[in-house]
Structure formats: structure tokens, C-alpha cells
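subagent[fold] <- orchestrator: predict structure for attached chain, return C-alpha cells only, no commentary.
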Amino acid sequence: MPVPRFLVFDLDGTLINSSLDLCNSVNAMLEHLGKPPLPNAVIASYIGDGAAMLVRRALGDPGDLDASTHDESVVREALEFFLSYYRVHKLDNTVVYDGVLTSLEQIRSRHPQILMAVLTNKPVGPSLDICRQLGLEPFFFQNYGGDSFPTKKPDPQGLQTLIAEANARLEQPLQAHEIVMIGDTDVDVLTGRSCGVRTLGCGFGLSPHALAAAQPDAFVEHASEWPAVLGL
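subagent[fold] -> orchestrator:
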């Protein structure tokens, strides 16, 4: 992989292992609505497309916002409860993946000129708070969430905005091959591909099978591999 100048990271399943807190929040929402809980493995398979889609899938919707099987008032109530519960419990069990901080520190110390940012479909408020409390914030010049734009990944808007902001900080504009989108799902690969940039898949995350099927340009099984695979 060509040596990059800009790295864009997904959050859940890439930088942090947040699966248990998300699953607990979904099941708390289901209990609030008088519905039976779902297995954690099932809920984990619903993560990646933002809070609203996570809630809809947990309620049994087909994943199509135009084909909802639930009254919208029920969906709104469910989403509001989920977000309220998650804000309180988002760090009960969530941790930074092993190797992430070491790799970020290595990249920063060896190549201080490389820019890094976060682009997640999680709402930006929890994303900022989690990165702040888990020591990730200093590495990133920007952190955008699923409610930062009218669209979410894999729509290119968020990544395009980050590229424009990175270019404003650099003397020489970025070339596509100098940008890498790093994530654990097919959504991240499709996001990178939609902007014509390189992609790095993290097989330790939430959706390894969908990730493999999306065929990222490079692949790792542990965050400690990032510097070597990126040529850093």
C-alpha cells in the first residue's frame, strides 16, 4: 500500500469494542417496549448503519426505511429511549481495542505530518465523548458522526468533507492513493470506494464476513498491524 498522508478511522469495531454496551442498550429498549430480548450476536450484526437503523432492525423492520413494519411513533419512542439509555451506559464495558493506542502513538511519533480523523455512523455526541474519555481524542483533528450530515456512510459526503478539510491544512493537496479509509464493515469499504481512496479492513471488528466479501485493499486481524500494513 502506498504511504498515506491521511487516515480516516471508523469507530465501533475499529477503534473501540463497544458491542456489549450497544447490545445492552438495545435490549433495555426492547424491555421498555415490552418486547423479548435479542441475543447479543444478533444485535451485533445490526450495528454499523447508525442508531436509527439499529433500532429499526431490533424491532424487526427489514432494514428499509421506506418499508417500515412499525408505526413511526413507536420507532421514535424506541430510538429516543435507546439513545437516552446509551448516553448513560456507553462506557460501562466499552474499551479501546488492544493495539490501537500503541499503533496510533507509533504513527504519530514517526510521521507527525500524517492527518487522522474519525468518521462513524454513531451519533457525534457519544463519539466525541467516548474518544475523549478513552484517550483517543488527541490523535484526530476531526470527528464526524452519523448525525453530522444529512447522509451516513456509505454515502461519500462525510469522507469528502474530511478530505476537503484535510486539504485546507496541507500545502500540497491529497491524492486519492494517499488517503486510507479504515474500518471493520463493508460500509467502510464502500465509503472509501465511493471516494476512490484506499481501504483497510479490520477483521477483529463487528462484521468480518461482510467485510471480507467487500474485498478491502488491505486486511488486518489486529490493530497492531496497522503501521506495517500502511508502510509506516
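orchestrator: received. Logging for downstream: Residues 8 and 117 are 5 Å apart (CA to CA). Strands lie at 6-9, 16-17, 95-96, 115-119, 142-144, 179-183, 198-202, 218-220.
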